[in-house]
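dumping this here before i forget
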Amino acid sequence: MPTAPAPPSDKPPRFAAFKYHDFRLMWAGQLISGAGTQMQFVALNYQIYELTGSPVYLGLTGLVRVVPIVIFSLLGGVIADNVDRRKLLLVTQTIMMLIAAVLGALTNAQIITPLMIYALTAIGAAAVAFDSPARQSIAPNLVPREAFSNAVSLNTIAWQGANIAGPMLAGFVIQRLGIGLVYWINALSFVAVLVALALLHTRFTVTEKRDVSFGALKEGWKFVFSQPLVRVTMLLDFVATFFSSANQLLPIFAKDILDVGAQGFGILSAASAVGAVSASLVMSFIPRLRHQGPLLLIAVALYGLGTVVFGASRMFWLSFAALGLIGAADIVSTVIRQTIRQLVTPDRLRGRMVSVNMVFFMGGPQLGELESGLLAAAVGGPLSVVIGGVATIIITAWTALASTPLRTYDEHPPEPPTALETPTAQPATGASLTPGGQ
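structure:
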């Protein structure tokens, strides 16, 4: 006797985004280029601390990165909504490749100074202000809507995989071959993403005439702040990353507190990425996250707790584990926030939405680097990190009490039973809010 066909499932297959050629290209290109970028971040921080021995100078690198982002990111978002985003990325990625090569040449010539590093870092940050809105805005065009949350998780795995490989490789190269080679490796890594962009089948032509004007910029800003969930998650991320900036003080912990040298510094720099990749892999096997609002609040609170433990630790393995917790919690928060943001935003506004968010989600950690450097100079590195973690936990608790839409948000409430099911009781009603909140 033939069996009845199984009812169709609306759950997307695991790793669904990998079915699409253009997504695979960009994923591989960004993995390679991202590893080079993370190598350069580690080298810059280590070189600044070697040249100056000052936590304040170390913290200033955050200020140097954030000022160009604040100045140019809103303009970058408007431009990303008005030009071919692929061509814009070809330009910005080429500029960043040249900056890495100049850093390598100056370091090899032994004429590099902190001022040169700050100047080149600022130029690179200005390029990022135009690059990031375009790069994040093309992501929803590479896969269909039903595969987008999977694409976010897979992109996160690639980015965090780069965060593991980059710092560990950087620590090895710095200790054995010198800082200059790190910059040359990063310059070469940009070739991968440039080739990926050149081979994309998708074209990003602008079909609607739009203005590059203050009015267009204001439209994006108004849209972001009219969406309650986008607004509250953006501000929560800003304050959390502002107060919990443990990574910026890693050179101090590696050299002066844990005494593990450049190679240990590279391993510690990769620890948060290890936690992030672990969390990303778990999330990629979950077709649909449930209770995203409470899960986001728990994740940010754990981010603060990991920061407290890291600041108080004097053992290498415990410090590594605390940084791993920070990375895992951060990635859960990131996937939830990015999915909400991208799916609620019309394509014509995505570049501007990303640019407004850049001011906050990049401004938080970069200004936090300055704050942590100044506070570390005043009270010491460990205590400054602990204070930041405690502040993050307190702010998260306040947000949970103050924001009902976030506290109750669930994009995918329990589905009603089908005709084939015979429940013994009425299903519980989940809290269902639209991505824009109420």
